[in-house]
Specification:
There is one protein chain. The protein contains five helices and seven strands, in the order H-E-E-E-H-E-H-E-H-E-E-H. The protein is α/β, with parallel strands linked by helices. It has a single domain, classed as Glutaredoxin (3-Layer(aba) Sandwich). 31% of the residues are buried.
Amino acid sequence: MIRIIIRRLFIVGLGVLAACAAPGATAPEIGRTAPDLRLEAASGAPVDLAALRGQVVVLNFWASWCGPCLAELPALQATYDAYRDRGATIVAVNLREEPAVVRAFVVEQRLSMPIALDPDGLVADRYLVKNLPVSFLIDRDGVIRERHLGPLRSSDLAQWLDGILAGE
């Protein structure tokens, strides 16, 4: 009887694993194409990762209630200002906050980098974001080159971007 129960649980478990590994569903791995995202920016403009092909993208997931996220925002903004004319951009994806709250925060903090809104967390789920902040470096071809958990410093960002921009 116990063997039958264990066998059935094993079969159910295999079915769950197969469902999670549906065709076309890929984890965000270094060396693989970044999962696409299409979100609305805090400004109201669309943010489409595929439309940014040809640029180097630092994709950062954050929230206004996250202390380490707030600590890295000045570095992200400064990096955006320094590199946007050199073929690189920052896309900061706000996770699971009300758009009105994020828009007010963006104005208050005077952020000009693209701030994408992910109020339901669907894009964060595609990127397997469990902790904040987390950042991905995506090259001009849309391939993930680096992943970093925790706050980034200006020197981290410069090293990432200078390295990838020099390697072209």
